[in-house]
Amino acid sequence: AKVSEYAIQMLGITKTFPGIVANDNVDLIVKKNEVHAILGENGAGKSTLMSVLFGAYSADAGKILINGKEVKITDPNVATSLGIGMVHQHFKLVHNYTVTENIVLGREPRNRFGILSLGAAEKKVKELSERYGLYVDPKAIIDDITVGQQQRVEILKTLYSDSDIIILDEPTAVLTPQEIDELMEIILKLKSEGKTIVLITHKLKEIKAVADRCTVLRRGKYIDCIDITPQTSEQELASLMVGRPVKFEIEKSPCKPGKKVLEIRDITVKDAIGVEKVKDLSLDVHAGEIVGIAGVDGNGQTELLYALSGLSPIEKGQIFLNGEDITKCTIRERVEKGLGHIPEDRQKHGLIAGFTVAENTVLKDFYTPKYTGRMGVLDYDAITKNSDMLIEQFDIRSGQGSITPCGALSGGNQQKVIVAREISLSPDVLLVAQPTRGLDVGAIEYIRKRLVAERDKGRAILLVSFELDEIMNLCDRIAAISKGSIVGIFKEGEKTASEIGLMMAGVKSKEGK
Fold first, then answer.
1. Is the pLDDT of residue 104 over 90?
2. SS3 493
């Protein structure tokens, strides 16, 4: 019999959930030993398709061939036995176990007396980790290693179980720029060792860097499969993915700053275990400007926003909003005085996953006369009307509209719910953290446009982002932060990206403010 040149053939796959066709007669054909990207917006059906391949969902229609043979993948164990491994976007690791314990979980090596023997497994993990350039200490506890290393543990899990086909679901959503470069090298190394890689992503740069071919999905349908060559442009990929030309640059008029709206005076903030994360930090934000805080993750940005929004107390210093001292105000008082917050952790601080889209859009003002009658009973008609308007205005794609639980939305659409809620309250000051993290180009373009529109209405916006090009693109003034202190403030265009990068790394700039 002739050996198939295809590692995976998924033909006519259809999968529906209540109110939504996630995959609509989709084909995916992956050659052996290639890096095959699956590109699509949030909610295009990429993860669903891979969950069908990995046996986490069963398709309603269609068939799957692995290495030319038709297979029925009823659960992930079947997928594993067929040589398919998957690295999920949210890692599946036990945090108080070691690297090796996580890798052998469910197939623990025992000696002839039935006693757990990790020695041989540790040795195999070490060998695999060196062979594939995945340097991880087999004895380290998961809690003690970085997110990038945790991902390597997930990749090692697939290699340990002898997978030939490795699915990576949005692998760079949580990585720093350096870790992303390292991951790209690892992917090429896996390919050179004969593995077949399926890469789910909406980052065009990564596809250009490592993919041989790319299948594009849009709103659950197969659009095209194209070869990636040096001539393939990011514009072309973006247009295929979104279905229209996408602008990468942000169009904005010159900034017209008004009065000081937010004043931060010498504040010091400690984290949960009492370590000073923000030290004597001062900053002003005026009406009608976007001020960006540029810094590497972990330099006090999170703690600064927690202190400003009221999620954590400050040790010393003061915060003024429209000239009024709000240092000791509760979160609700700050909201009522005109403070909005798009938090960086959307699941933890932005949404209640079990609540519907409608309920999530009024989390901050459900108790006001707008939505509550005299007896304190919620007016669900008003709440639904409000969310229907926001769903349309912000293009929130949810299977059943207002009544969809937020937990059932894709990440990008969850983010849009938060942005819609915060902007619709029209606060004087908007604290924005990582507004476009993990979003696709269409959603990124939209959210950035909305922020600029808010600025033009005279709002004061304080933006924290770890993506330097986002800061350079959106902000009128940029404050570089390092180890909890601001190391320089300058207007848009005064510094190059590499100069700001150096300051983020703690190299002081010559002139002060």
1. no
2. coil
Euclidean distance between CA atoms 306 and 374, whole angstroms: 34
Q: Percent of the chain scored above 70 by pLDDT?
A: 97
Q: Which class for 375: exposed (0-12), middle (13-18), buried (19 or more C-beta within 10 A)?
A: exposed
d(CA 367, CA 377): 9
Distance (Å, whole) CA 419 – CA 427:
12
The CA dihedral of 133, 134, 138, 141, to the nearest 10 degrees, is: 150
pLDDT tens-digit readout, 332-357: 999 999 999 999 888 888 999 999 99
Q: What angle separates helix 441-456 from helix 411-424, to the nearest 10 degrees?
A: 10
Q: Closest Cα to residue 255, out of 428, 435, 454? A: 454
Half-sphere exposure of 295 (CA within 13 A, CB side): 25
- For residue 11 the two structure tokens come to 């033909």
C-alpha span between 512 and 490 (Å, rounded) = 9
The amino acid at residue 151 is: Q
Single-letter amino acid, residue 232: T
CA distance 435 to 31: 36
Instruction: Enter the tokens of residue 509.
Output: 């700039």
Task: List residues bridging with 197 in a β-sheet.
Answer: 35, 166
Task: Provide the pLDDT confidence category of residue 493 given band limits of 50, 70 and 90.
Answer: confident
Please give the radius of gyration of the chain, using alpha carbons only, rounded to the nearest integer: 25
444 pLDDT band, cuts 50/70/90, is: confident
282: left (phi over 0), alpha (psi -120 to 50) or beta: beta
Please tell me the total number of residues recorded for the chain in this structure.
513
* Mean pLDDT in residue range 51-76: 94
Angle at CA 297, nearest 5°, toward 175 and 412? 55
* 3 state DSSP class of 245: coil
